[in-house]
């Protein structure tokens, strides 16, 4: 017997109880089974369970397969799992409860075999389960379409039964995946992600073309829930191992941002993979943390691999958080998960350069609420303001720059007195009085870039980039997305930020000195010229026809080609010819002919 077999009764009970005798005979038979005759022992069990309808309820079926898994030799476990998967395929048209019963039996078998040798069954288990997940969603949607022919009660009952099947599949996937070694788990994560239907990509087998929007959303939610369970407890040595580009790109796809629940699942998956020191529980809930040191946050020095990852993929993470804050259907949980994402990024991946990027992102989130170019509801605007406050309070204490902490604390204190709805403790209460409008000139309620730059500059931070407003990168998927074009968002941001930034309205109380005036006179002309050049370039790409821009680019390309041709003609000369010399005039070659009798040939060539 293997690990944890059921306890055996006493000798007297064995002789009197036929069921115990049958179980012991069954155990002994299975213990002697070899790979070649394993089917002869397992398939009669399937026939018995089918004939007597013992899959629903499935207590007897679960008990039988526990006996099988504990009695057979360990190296044959994968064969039994393959047989269960095959039987699930055979019974795929049966009622949802029968399929759910078979899947629960599979879960019990996997639970026993997961730590042992399961051979080539890993991908087969996941592939079969994902296929049946798709089948279940198809059945659920088919029942919903036929609702006109049936009563509402029967349809809702069928849908709930299919949800039982789907939950059983997700539970099995999650349990199996979480018990695999890390190298196999990363492969399974990639495998599941490849099945998620995302805009602009083709999944390997779960083609959503016949599902419609509702079916695609159901598949996305089911697969992301499965992925969430597989990633639970996963600890990668470097973040690039946990979030390789083929996995990160589809995970952060814009098509997974169109639904509040999908965004929540994506953020929770990111938390599982980024949080390598189990700090997430300490950050649960969005709030102004009085003293971050009380949380006893664990962190290590940022590795070179993690620094390289942030240089390559950091903008993707910032962009996902930025766009996630602009969604109208955000609820409190979304804001809590966004705060946790920012905090975990700070703990696990932030060096000085990333800290500056995160501050720029937080100020950009504040501008979302103040400028409100997306016409967000007042709750969302206040929620974004509260998110920026909670995060900057956390960040200022993590980097421990006194002047920065002082500025953040002062703004939070002012808000608590004059605008408590800008703080998470107030805005996320059930009954919160929202303001009718947000006044842009109330600068004492806002975090100001010039104040932050001044405080960080004195501590050795390179604050030059703080003056550049954060703008999310445009990706190829934005051209395919059904969402609002981010190009419009970028151009609007540039116009607004260059014309009427909040900080431009802050009275400059700096003392005017002779050196300051001299510097202003010297630099003013150059700065004005640079601003005018940038304005003209932005205006041109916003308003000029596409054909004009393309023609100009083509002209530049042709000019470059001509220049290269001239350089090559000058540098790559042909070998000297006895027939004459070559000269180049205005980019064209001219040959000077020499009469034959004047040609000079080598002595060896003359007879």
UniProtKB/TrEMBL annotation:
The gene is Efr3a. SUPFAM superfamilies: ARM repeat (SSF48371). It comes from the Eukaryota. It comes from Vidua macroura (Pin-tailed whydah). InterPro entries: ARM-type_fold, EFR3_Homologs. One of its GO terms (cellular component) is plasma membrane. This is EFR3A protein. GO terms for biological process: protein localization to plasma membrane.
